[in-house]
Amino acid sequence: MVIALKELSIRGDFRTTVEYLVKLLETEKFQTNTINTGWLDHLISEKVQTFQSSLERLSDGGLLLALDGSSYTTYMREEVSSYRIVIGNKTCVFEKENDPTALRAPSTGKLINFLVEDGGHVFTGDVYAEIEVMKMVMELKVEENGCVHYVKRPGVSLDAGCIIAHLKLDDPSRVQRVSTE
């Protein structure tokens, strides 16, 4: 299975767990079935390191990273809820903070209309707006209870991830910050 996974090549704007699976399958503890619930945490903590490096910007938007005598071509792409970073042939995805107060467009499209008036109260799962994406109507729902305050107007074009409205939460403690530990 390891050989098949190593020969697998998938390119596109989606992520796979192939690299991760190969690494896990090749560990001695996995092969001898001597793993426990702390096994993965231990593997992750072993890899935490810091290095000195130098960077050169490439004409195609990437960066050439020099690290310990080796060079790596790197690319970064911001997505709606994460950052995708490719270093050589390895892909890393970093999740953004989950801030339910920022109501964002999930994809590029056109704002059709609002289903709740500005300043109106909504409950978790309520549809607050509709956007047109590739000739189809997509409903936008809130993740938390609160009052909606719009920053865009119907008819405008939206980029993926742009803020359509702000939600004043009934419970402000629902904002989850990204941990730096």
Describe the fold and architecture:
The protein is mainly beta and 181 residues long. It has 3 domains: 1-48, no CATH class; 52-95, no CATH class; 102-174, OB fold (Dihydrolipoamide Acetyltransferase, E2P), CATH 2.40.50.100. It is built from 4 helices and 13 strands. The chain has helices spanning 2-7, 18-26, 28-31, 39-46, and strands spanning 53-57, 63-67, 70-78, 82-87, 90-95, 102-104, 109-114, 121-122, 127-133, 136-141, 146-150, 157-158, 163-169. The strands form 3 sheets. It has a 5-stranded antiparallel sheet, with no helix packed on it. A 4-stranded antiparallel sheet has the order 6-13-11-8, with no helix packed on it. Strand 4 (82-87) and strand 5 form a beta hairpin. The longest helix is centred in the N-terminal third of the chain and has 9 residues, at 18-26. It is elongated. 9% of the residues are buried. The model has no long low-confidence stretch (mean pLDDT 86).
